Amino acid sequence: MPVIAMTREMGSGGREVAQGVCEQLGLTLILHEMVERDLAERLAVPESTIHHRFEGGASLRERWQVGSSRLAQYTAEEILELAHKGDVLIRGWGACVLLRDVPHVARVRVCAPMPLRERNVMQRRGLEDARAARREIERNDDAHRRTLQAQFGLGREDPLLYDLVLNTERLSIDTCVRLVSDLTESPELRETEASRAALADQVLGAHIRIKLDERFTAGTGVSAIEATVHGGKVVLRGTVIHSTLAAEAGSIVGTLPGVRDVDNRIEVVHGPHGL
């Protein structure tokens, strides 16, 4: 079940490449609007709030409604779940960062020089001024750059995030589609039981982080609980001010589907330890 994570620059033709690959391989294209809708439902906020938080221009109220950390956690869970289902191409959403440790995921970047991007945006938006197109591109680039940096601590320009980088000034859309399709067939990216298990562990880890953060908010006497997952076995680390809190954290994790065992190494501390 192919899984492709794609980053594209605005005006580079990445949209057309993604559509062509999905048509050729029979994949589901995860559109921007689909993820925004799902996140909005799960976070109980308007879709416009999610859109503005990712695309820039979020108001103070929208930033208050959904903090960066909470949004990053729910986004990670959504993208990991989609990848785990397989037969998908996920465009954007930090997928290349989130899935970088999953061996069978093909990570692709589609880019182009600014003059070509300007022309494409002018044609698509019906603009007559290249400067207006450049402002729109730069605003979009900056919003995505800041979002990835804030949520994942990485920039999408890092070449080590990708298996394949395509420049649509030199390569046609058809050629790009063929190259991406060929990449998914390479033996290095073949899905195995181990690679699928690694992805399942990441999905489970995302579920655990959200459940624990929802229960142990600031001021509850719990600090920095971390969960390491391997083969469904979970190791919990962190600090709490009372043993009942450590036990509760272990109980919460132990009831989640997919958890086979919990090794609770949370320490009980007394006094001011940032709790």
CATH class of the largest domain: Alpha Beta
Strand numbers in spatial order across the main sheet: 2-3-1-4-5
CATH topology of the largest domain: Rossmann fold
Under the CATH scheme, which architecture of the largest domain would be assigned? 3-Layer(aba) Sandwich
What Rg do the Cα atoms give?
Answer: 21 Å
The main pleated sheet reads as: 5 strands, parallel
- Report the principal-axis shape: globular
Would you mind describing this structure in some detail?
- This protein has 275 residues and is an alpha/beta fold.
- It has two domains: 3-190, Rossmann fold; 194-268, Histidine-containing Protein, Chain: A (2-Layer Sandwich), CATH 3.30.1340.30.
- It contains eleven helices and nine strands.
- Helix 2 crosses helix 3, helix 2 (32-43) packs across helix 5 (68-85) and helix 5 (68-85) packs antiparallel against helix 10 (193-215).
